[in-house]
Design goal:
alpha+beta; Aminopeptidase; 3 helices; binds coenzyme A; Acyl_CoA_acyltransferase; MSMEG_0567_GNAT; GNAT family N-acetyltransferase; acyltransferase activity, transferring groups other than amino-acyl groups; GNAT_dom
Length: 209
């Protein structure tokens, strides 16, 4: 039996899907601000640009009592010209990195959504430290570029590695993986009324990316 502190919440899973609700769009914008303005200081005041008007925002949502809770990951995609798609502003909340494979799953949903909409080329400017992550997911380097004063790799996705997704607003539920810390979350009341949510032995049927 495992004891949990009264203020530690172990998030049991995540919804990975296109943002449709206002709180999802606002949560994605706030997360981008925390990551690209405050943490990485790539932008001074805000990171919004003209692409936001045409982009589809995808999100990773933590869950609480089986319901979607906070936006803890995001990425946006847009079609620059017929068949040519770009992904940008990939961000995972600092407290949720490397624990739920959220970055990997957001990349998967991004490319799969574009593929479902007729994408035949998918590119992203990838910060150097993230090149190994993208390479593991079937992306290759096309060029080295500087974007917003930061060195990036221009990378292209191998579309054969991705299945098309026709309904990204449905997305999928990814359960926290066994054998790793389920999640380090912000302090909040433990979900004492729903003990199953806390069980580290919860069956594994998460969708791997
Ligand atoms: C990059 C980022 C989105 C990755 O999110 P994440 O949820 O931590 O990534 P995942 O857990 O899905 O990582 C998948 C795998 O890649 C590895 N990985 C993640 N980031 C990595 C990095 N920067 N370098 C090397 N490996 C990395 C993870 O360890 C994991 O390995 P595993 O599959 O063997 O366990 C996140 O670190 C982030 O938001 N960083 C700050 C903003 C940023 O850099 N955005 C990207 C701009 S291109």
């Amino acid at each position: 039996m495992k004891a949990f502190g009264p203020t530690v919440f172990y998030c049991p899973g995540f919804f990975i899907r296109a943002a449709t609700a206002l709180y999802e769009a606002r949560g994605a914008a706030a997360l981008r601000h925390r990551v690209f303005v405050e943490e990485q200081q790539i932008f001074k005041d805000h990171d919004r640009d003209a692409i936001d008007a045409v982009a589809t925002t995808l999100v990773a949502l933590s869950t609480y009592a089986h319901e979607a809770d906070e936006v803890v990951g995001t990425v946006r995609i847009h079609e620059a010209e017929p068949g040519l798609w770009w992904g940008s502003r990939l961000a995972v909340d600092q407290e949720f990195r490397a624990v739920g494979r959220l970055g990997r799953q957001l990349i998967r949903l991004a490319v799969s959504t574009a593929k479902g909409r007729g994408c035949d080329r998918f590119f992203a400017h990838v910060q150097r430290q993230n090149v190994p992550l993208f390479a593991k997911l079937g992306w290759s380097i096309e060029d080295e570029v500087v974007v917003h004063g930061v060195p990036h790799a221009l990378m292209r996705a191998d579309l054969t590695c991705y299945e098309p997704v026709a309904d990204p607003q449905v997305g999928w539920l990814s359960l926290a993986s066994q054998g790793r810390p389920a999640i380090r979350s912000r302090s909040r009341q433990a979900c004492e009324g729903v003990p199953a949510l806390l069980a580290p032995s919860w069956p594994q049927w998460s969708v791997s990316a």
